[in-house]
Amino acid sequence: QILILDFGSQYTQLIARRVRELNVYCEIHPFNKVPAITPDIKGVILSGSPCSVRDQNSPTVDISAFSNVPVLGVCYGAQLIAHQQGGNVLPSQIREYGRAKLNTVNHANELLKEISLDTQVWMSHADTIASVPDTFEIIATTPSVAVAAYKVKNQKVWGIQFHPEVTHTTEGKNLLRNFVVHICGCNQDWTADQFVDTTIASLKARLGNDQVVMALSGGVDSTVAAILVHKAIGKNLHCIFVDNGLLRKNEFQQVLDSYQHMGLNIKGVDAKDKFYAALKDLTEPEAKRKAIGRTFIEVFDEEAHLISDVKWLGQGTIYPDVIESVSVNGPSQTIKSHHNVGGLPEKMKLKIVEPLNTLFKDEVRVVGKTLGIDPTILGRHPFPGPGLGIRILGDVTADKVRILQEVDAIFIGGLRDSGLYDKVWQAGAMLLPVQSVGVMGDERTYERVVSLRAVTSTDGMTADWAHLPYEFLANVSSDIINKVKGVNRVVYDISSKPPATIEWE
Ligand code: XMP
To answer: Where is the GMPS ATP-PPase domain (predicted)?
Structure first.
């Protein structure tokens, strides 16, 4: 595997994505928690960073610890190596952000083998390597960056100022392949098939005859995780699917049916009334999230106790949730508490099994496909744990849920019928806590407003509002107003994230 050391760049996860796309396993670790360099680590990549190596407290690492394996510094990583070995890193004279072209390329160097002259690279840095010591060989330049890439002469150490991990660097993947495959000698044998085989084998060994309990949500991650555990231990996996009364229209029954169809040992629990009671009169978003999370734990705990001798709790946690991200600006402010069931493992005193905790989201989908899971489940939009509870602004009642379910079903059904569902990353409707005046026939109406939201995104961290066709929006709007009693106005949300968030609460 390849070890990626994170210095806080926004692109670190992308480096890992690209390496994995080469069928090479890699892990990200924070720069200040370097794991032992065991023989299975074949190379190290140092990420970029928003910091400057010239600052006293900038993140650093002693690269002599990696003398047995090849090292590639990217951007800040390259500056750090140059700085440590006697080079000069200074603020750039001109802004070096965006596309550039390599106007000299040393093709004799293994890292740049078959990288075209004039190839486009992506620059994003405020400092630049002004000079390197004699022990360095410059192997690529751009018209404005004299040290675009270097090799330390008698060490297996390279540095590149540009970002090979972003797609704007046209041949970035080839460069990473040169490093990971040709220089580090990694076998390209990390595939979904291989992941499935080794994971099932290790789950069998780890879980033996133990009983495992798992909460399923109908989402991609928990479903794929459950199928893997099920393949390993069969009926010893007990799945629970809770109807919190905040799901989409008919979703509970549909999802339950599809789980049964997959052969899972699943129990559906109707806890709608408990959730509505816990939410009664709550209007503040975080208070609602807490009430939903707490009620979920209570219901799940009660159900789990009905199964005798449970030892493990299975979870669909994925890699981005476990990467310890390096926050250079101190702890970040909690905008929304997404992890609504964080207290579950502690309360239940169970051991945790998380078969997907080394995978990125799109890798989970590929594994799901390998496992033969229905593509409609694998392609589902993300849906928040608190469900419609955070899409009904203000207090939640069963009546409001029913209205919103109808609106949501028309919108999502419309997206599917028009072939737009897979073109957006997430979509849904919000029930606003306002009424507006309208006219229907000859009568004045005074009813609710709903806002439709559809976004494009890759990871939900940033998002743009989806530019859905006007014709489509017009049809959905009149369908909603004609069919959903209690709604007389539909608006479309045209805010991107940031500054808005995807959910309204
Ligand atoms: P925001 O609204 O923060 O949403 O832009 C980003 C993504 O996270 C989902 N989301 C949640 N998921 N519990 C969840 O499991 C939550 O409390 C929660 N809040 C937001 C949201 O649907 C989007 O995909």
So the answer is: 190-380
What pLDDT shows up at residue 332? 54
Fold agreement between 2-183 and 192-378:
yes
Q: Which CATH class is domain 192-378?
A: alpha beta
Q: What is the mean pLDDT of residues 250-273?
A: 97
Strands (E), 244-393: 266-270, 310-314, 351-353
Residue 414 CA: distances (Å) to CA of 161, 392, 503: 47, 21, 20
Please tell me the residue having the least CA distance from ligand 1 atom 3.
501
C-alpha 501 to ligand 1 mean position (Å)? 9
Annotated binding-site residue? 222: yes
Q: Choose, from 51, 83, 125, 163, the residue flagged as catalytic.
A: 163
Answer yes or no: 339 catalytic: no
Q: Which residue has the higher pLDDT, 145 or 95?
A: 145
The ligand 1 atom at the shortest distance from the C-alpha of residue 505 is: 2
Pick the most confident of 215-219, 236-240, 459-463: 236-240
Ligand 1 binding pocket mutation candidate from 502, 504, 505 (most atoms within 8 A of CB)? 502
Structure tokens belonging to residue 243: 């109807």
Domain 2-183 fold is Rossmann fold (3.40.50)
Give the whole-number percent of the chain exceeding pLDDT 90.
89
Exactly one of 75, 184, 186, 239 is catalytic; name it: 75
What are the sequence ranges of the domains in the chain?
2-183, 192-378, 391-492
Beta-ladder partners of 5: 29, 46
Active site annotation includes 184: no
* Mean pLDDT, rounded, for 410-414: 98
- Can you give the pLDDT at residue 346? 73
**Phi and psi angles of residue 254, each rounded to the nearest 5 degrees, phi first:** -60, -45
Q: What fold is seen in the domain 391-492? A: GMP Synthetase; Chain A, domain 3 (3.30.300)
CB 387 within 8 A of CB 247: yes
Distances (CA, A) of 500 to 29, 342, 428, 455, 492: 31, 25, 15, 12, 14
Quote ipTM for the complex.
Answer: 0.99
Residues lining ligand 1, Cβ inside 6 A:
289, 336, 338, 340, 382, 384-386, 426, 460, 497, 501-503
Over residues 125-168, the pLDDT tens digits come to 889 999 999 999 999 999 999 999 999 999 999 999 999 999 99
